[in-house]
Structures are given as C-alpha cells and as structure tokens.
Design a protein that fits this description.
The protein has a domain of 91 residues. It has 9 helices and no strands. The longest helix is centred in the last third of the chain and has 45 residues. The chain is rod-shaped. It starts with a helix and ends in a 5-residue tail after the last helix.
Length: 186
C-alpha cells in the first residue's frame, strides 16, 4: 500500500478524535514517511514497516480515551474507554466488559439502596396520608433509623465509587499494555 492509501485507512477511524489530536497523529506519521524516504525506502516499504493502519488507529483511539478517563473520570469517558478497548480485540469483550458490568451493577445497586433508605421517611408519610389508620410509631422510627443508615452507606458509596473508578482505570491501562504487546514496563 502506498502513502496515500495508508493515510486514508489511518484517518477514517481517527475521525472519532478531536481535530487537533488527529492532526498531531497524522503529522507524526508524515514524519515517519519522511524519515523512511531519507533512508531510501519506498512508500510501500515504509507502510509495511508501520503495520496495519486500522490497528494503529484502534490503538491510538483506545489510548486517547483511557488518557481522557485519567484526566476526567466521567461516566461518558469511562464508557468510551471501555468501548475503545473492546474494539482492540474479541478477547477484550470478555476481559473488559464482564468486570465493567459487574462493577457498574454493584455501584448502581449500592446507590439505589442509599436512595431508598434515605427516602424511607417520605414513604412512611405518604403511607400515613393514604392510610391514616395504619400509622404506627415503630414505622416512623424505623424509617428514621434507615435514613441514618442510608447516609452512612451514601458516604461509603461515594468513596467506593471513587476507588472502583480509579481501580478500573488502572485495569484498563493494564489491559491496554497487554494487548499492545506484553508487560514490558509492568
């Protein structure tokens, strides 16, 4: 494949990245070709030595999204990073997606319990308005106790969410290093 074909195949998957990032990447590969020409290589030899442009683009997109998660760990950034890593290979469908779904389910369920416990006095009051004859002080005091427990669980869930997010980002980076060629620096 010649230089023009290489850049066409490289640029297509990079459309997902911001324009400045894409331009920097393409400029780097322009330099690879320029250095190859100085060494007397043909366009085809340079393109062959660089490897598959589609795989290069997948690696670069995954790297970009994982770095973005390190900067700002938002839910959207984490989903993009997971999706980009899954795109690196079928193996990652199981290795990345499975733990991600399990951890996300634990975090969501923990927050759901927090909200339910904190909102329990409201439910007791609604029940009292609808069925005044069913009111019991035990229900009210128990719901107040659940509110306190819900606040403690909420504080714990905040720290657990942060810890799980940071741990999962490290796991994504570890997985990306393995996919890209082993554990050289691990």
């Amino acid at each position: 494949m010649n230089k023009e074909q290489f850049f066409a195949k490289l640029n297509a998957p990079l459309k997902k990245l911001p324009a400045q990032e894409r331009e920097d990447i393409l400029q780097d590969f322009e330099e690879h070709f320029a250095m190859g020409f100085e060494e007397g290589k043909t366009e085809e030899q340079i393109a062959d030595s660089l490897g598959s442009p589609q795989q290069i683009a997948k690696d670069l997109v995954a790297t970009y999204h994982v770095e973005k998660v390190e900067e700002t760990a938002t839910t959207a950034n984490i989903f993009r990073a997971v999706w980009a890593l899954i795109g690196l290979g079928f193996f990652n469908l199981v290795i990345v997606l499975g733990p991600f779904i399990a951890l996300a389910a634990l975090i969501v369920s923990g927050w759901a319990v927090t909200v339910a416990f904190i909102g329990s006095p409201l439910l007791v009051m609604i029940n009292t308005v609808m069925y005044p004859e069913a009111f019991q002080f035990f229900d009210l005091f128990f719901s107040v106790g659940l509110t306190g427990l819900g606040l403690f669980i909420g504080v714990g869930m905040y720290f657990a969410t942060r810890a799980v997010t940071n741990g999962f980002v490290r796991y994504l980076k570890f997985n990306m290093r393995i996919v890209k060629g082993g554990m050289k620096d691990a």
